[in-house]
Amino acid sequence: MYPHPDIERVLFTEEEIRTKIAAIAAEISSDYAGRDPVLVGVLKGSVFFLTDLARALTIPARLDFLSIAPFVPDAEPRSNPGVVRILKDLDHSIEDQDVLLVEDIVDTGLTLRYLLRALGARRPRSLHVCALLDRASRRLADVPIRYRCFEIPDRFVVGYGLDYQQLYRNLPYVGVVKSGIFRS
Ligand code: IMP
Hints:
21% helix
């Protein structure tokens, strides 16, 4: 069934996501021409976006991943923003590397601010952000996003990597979930 029965509305279809990623990848390939940036993905939400983005680039790129978790493991992510810890660190040093931090969504910006500080302290040559989704209306921290695919309204979204209680990540589109599925 399309969309999934728990999805109220599809915001971005597979086709729209693919088209936008191709455009952003062309921009990144041009900006980083002659360099081989490290794409740093934040597990697990950015995996689908990062792998599609990486394949659309025309420059060499390396991949590394880190995993973060809120301090309250089962809390709904929007209820305790910005309080994160690194569960899995990068495999390689980023010192003197051109780092592109690939994020699924920037909401309050608190997670991204934490990550930028943590990675910036490792003295990369450059550090920029590429985000699939930007919900600027809820921003609490002023964070620089160099590449963004889509701005979204203030609704909780899932799909294409984004989850609600670890579900819906594998939907190939981004959609708004029906409010009835939220558990307290
Ligand atoms: P922040 O508020 O910008 O710190 O967002 C932190 C994290 O919350 C994101 O990286 C996502 O993992 C999660 N998040 C925020 N909004 C949503 C959403 O609409 N759907 C799924 N996860 C979300």
